[in-house]
Protein backbone atom coordinates (compact mmCIF):
# COMPACT_ATOMS: atom_id res chain seq x y z
CA UNK A 1 0.00 0.00 0.00
CA UNK A 2 1.01 3.68 0.04
CA UNK A 3 2.56 3.34 3.51
CA UNK A 4 5.05 0.72 2.31
CA UNK A 5 3.43 -2.15 4.22
CA UNK A 6 3.75 -5.51 2.45
CA UNK A 7 0.25 -6.81 1.68
CA UNK A 8 -1.21 -9.61 -0.42
CA UNK A 9 -4.35 -9.18 -2.51
CA UNK A 10 -6.71 -11.92 -3.60
CA UNK A 11 -9.79 -11.87 -5.78
CA UNK A 12 -12.75 -14.02 -4.75
CA UNK A 13 -16.45 -14.45 -5.43
CA UNK A 14 -17.38 -11.83 -2.81
CA UNK A 15 -14.81 -9.22 -3.84
CA UNK A 16 -11.18 -8.28 -3.28
CA UNK A 17 -9.54 -9.54 -0.08
CA UNK A 18 -6.49 -7.95 1.58
CA UNK A 19 -4.07 -10.11 3.59
CA UNK A 20 -1.14 -9.18 5.80
CA UNK A 21 1.09 -12.11 6.80
CA UNK A 22 -1.65 -14.69 5.93
CA UNK A 23 -4.21 -12.83 8.07
CA UNK A 24 -7.25 -11.33 6.36
CA UNK A 25 -7.39 -7.65 7.30
CA UNK A 26 -10.01 -6.29 4.88
CA UNK A 27 -12.56 -7.25 2.25
CA UNK A 28 -13.86 -4.95 -0.47
CA UNK A 29 -17.15 -6.47 -1.61
CA UNK A 30 -18.25 -6.10 -5.22
CA UNK A 31 -21.32 -4.17 -4.05
CA UNK A 32 -19.14 -1.49 -2.43
CA UNK A 33 -16.68 -1.18 -5.32
CA UNK A 34 -17.55 1.52 -7.84
CA UNK A 35 -14.54 1.11 -10.14
CA UNK A 36 -11.24 -0.76 -10.34
CA UNK A 37 -8.36 0.46 -12.45
CA UNK A 38 -4.60 0.36 -12.78
CA UNK A 39 -1.99 2.84 -13.87
CA UNK A 40 1.50 1.45 -14.26
CA UNK A 41 2.28 -0.21 -10.90
CA UNK A 42 -0.70 1.32 -9.06
CA UNK A 43 -3.92 -0.66 -8.54
CA UNK A 44 -6.87 1.56 -7.60
CA UNK A 45 -10.18 0.63 -5.99
CA UNK A 46 -12.80 3.38 -6.03
CA UNK A 47 -15.59 2.83 -3.52
CA UNK A 48 -19.19 4.01 -3.32
CA UNK A 49 -19.68 6.74 -0.69
CA UNK A 50 -21.00 5.52 2.66
CA UNK A 51 -23.33 8.14 4.12
CA UNK A 52 -22.22 11.68 4.79
CA UNK A 53 -19.26 10.95 7.06
CA UNK A 54 -15.60 11.19 6.15
CA UNK A 55 -14.51 8.28 4.04
CA UNK A 56 -11.67 7.37 1.78
CA UNK A 57 -13.25 6.81 -1.61
CA UNK A 58 -10.09 5.55 -3.35
CA UNK A 59 -7.78 2.83 -2.04
CA UNK A 60 -4.39 2.45 -3.70
CA UNK A 61 -2.03 -0.53 -3.80
CA UNK A 62 1.41 -0.80 -5.42
CA UNK A 63 2.65 -3.86 -7.32
CA UNK A 64 6.19 -4.95 -8.20
CA UNK A 65 5.64 -4.29 -11.90
CA UNK A 66 3.12 -3.07 -14.46
CA UNK A 67 2.40 -6.56 -15.83
CA UNK A 68 1.62 -7.97 -12.37
CA UNK A 69 -0.73 -5.07 -11.72
CA UNK A 70 -2.47 -5.48 -15.09
CA UNK A 71 -2.86 -9.24 -14.63
CA UNK A 72 -4.45 -8.77 -11.20
CA UNK A 73 -6.77 -6.11 -12.63
CA UNK A 74 -7.80 -8.54 -15.41
CA UNK A 75 -8.57 -11.27 -12.85
CA UNK A 76 -10.69 -8.82 -10.87
CA UNK A 77 -12.66 -7.78 -13.97
CA UNK A 78 -13.22 -11.42 -14.96
CA UNK A 79 -14.37 -12.45 -11.48
CA UNK A 80 -16.61 -9.42 -11.11
CA UNK A 81 -18.23 -10.08 -14.47
CA UNK A 82 -18.79 -13.74 -13.63
CA UNK A 83 -20.04 -13.47 -10.05
CA UNK A 84 -22.16 -10.32 -10.50
CA UNK A 85 -23.91 -11.61 -13.63
CA UNK A 86 -27.63 -11.96 -12.90
CA UNK A 87 -29.01 -12.81 -16.33
CA UNK A 88 -27.89 -15.57 -18.65
CA UNK A 89 -28.28 -14.69 -22.31
CA UNK A 90 -29.34 -17.51 -24.60
CA UNK A 91 -28.03 -17.21 -28.12
CA UNK A 92 -30.33 -18.59 -30.80
CA UNK A 93 -28.30 -20.21 -33.54
CA UNK A 94 -29.32 -20.76 -37.10
CA UNK A 95 -29.15 -24.45 -37.93
CA UNK A 96 -27.88 -25.13 -41.42
CA UNK A 97 -27.52 -28.84 -42.03
CA UNK A 98 -26.15 -28.52 -45.56
CA UNK A 99 -22.52 -27.71 -44.71
CA UNK A 100 -22.49 -28.63 -41.04
CA UNK A 101 -19.20 -30.04 -39.72
CA UNK A 102 -18.47 -30.93 -36.14
CA UNK A 103 -20.61 -30.66 -33.05
CA UNK A 104 -23.81 -28.63 -32.89
CA UNK A 105 -23.54 -28.17 -29.13
TrEMBL record:
Entry-linked Pfam families: FERM_C
Domain of life: Eukaryota
CDD domains: FERM_C_FARP1-like
GO molecular function list: guanyl-nucleotide exchange factor activity
Ranges for domain FERM: 1-87
InterPro entries assigned to the protein according to its UniProt record, in alphabetical order: FARP1/FARP2/FRMD7_FERM_C (IPR041788), FERM_domain (IPR000299), FERM_PH-like_C (IPR018980), PH-like_dom_sf (IPR011993), RAC1-GEF (IPR051835)
SMART domains membership: FERM_C
Protein name: FERM domain-containing protein
Organism encoding this protein: Bracon brevicornis
